[in-house]
Amino acid sequence: MGVASSGIDDDLYTNSGDSISSMQLVGDIYRELGRKVSVKDVFIHRKARRIFDNVLSHEAGRRLPLLPPLKADQGLATGIAPLLPPIQTWFTFKKLQRPEYCNHCFAIRTPPLDVGRLTEAVRLLQLRHDALRMRIETRNSQSVQTFVPTIRPVEIATLRIRSLDGESSKPTEERELLTRQSCFNIAEGPFFTIVYVHGYEDGSARVWCSFHHLIMDTVSWNIIRSDLQMLYQGADLGMKSSSVQQ
């Protein structure tokens, strides 16, 4: 949360907590402790000690405030949904010449990875986050978001940062990444691309990601990074939260 330390009696929201960090906390509690806590529980109780006491009280059968669990759809979101204001509605009204080229990128530094496992992790990520299967269509002169029932496999491109003779391939890399992030298709997909970059002198690699602004904001980067890492490692992400369609 951007603070040096936070005690069990400190208010999480006073310490720069927000809805995103609350979602991450709920996920961590479930994965590490096997306890179900909702984001609303975190918002109500706000302090680690009170959240802990509330969980124990609920398990002991005492009637302390505990909100009912979120009934999130665990299947794939399909069909249509209205655009989400303000970003999606603003975007469609802009009439941009190149609407596919409105994205943001980040790179995750990693040890060497298995591209096959990374590809499977990305496929599971699409199952987890319905927005990664979203399309924008025009129906009855209105733009709507649709969710396709099938997953189109995302090809993980690989780039070597240095050739075998030691020559830098940075210009080629930059051209390839520019091409990758400018070929999105908002009507047919995909809305994102991932490239595995390797060959760094220290033996490290990068998972380079580009997502269209229609499906993700910069606040969500850490959620995607964390989920992708856990899926690559074979971990269970637990129950889905409410989908963008809900």
TrEMBL record:
<dbReference type="InterPro" id="IPR001242">
    <property type="entry name" value="Condensation_dom"/>
</dbReference>
<dbReference type="InterPro" id="IPR009081">
    <property type="entry name" value="PP-bd_ACP"/>
</dbReference>
<dbReference type="GO" id="GO:0044550">
    <property type="term" value="P:secondary metabolite biosynthetic process"/>
</dbReference>
<dbReference type="InterPro" id="IPR023213">
    <property type="entry name" value="CAT-like_dom_sf"/>
</dbReference>
<keyword id="KW-0436">Ligase</keyword>
<feature type="domain" description="Carrier">
    <location>
        <begin position="1"/>
        <end position="59"/>
    </location>
</feature>
<dbReference type="GO" id="GO:0005737">
    <property type="term" value="C:cytoplasm"/>
</dbReference>
<dbReference type="GO" id="GO:0031177">
    <property type="term" value="F:phosphopantetheine binding"/>
</dbReference>
<dbReference type="GO" id="GO:0016874">
    <property type="term" value="F:ligase activity"/>
</dbReference>
<dbReference type="Pfam" id="PF00668">
    <property type="entry name" value="Condensation"/>
</dbReference>
<protein>
    <recommendedName>
        <fullName>Carrier domain-containing protein</fullName>
    </recommendedName>
</protein>
<dbReference type="GO" id="GO:0043041">
    <property type="term" value="P:amino acid activation for nonribosomal peptide biosynthetic process"/>
</dbReference>
<dbReference type="InterPro" id="IPR036736">
    <property type="entry name" value="ACP-like_sf"/>
</dbReference>
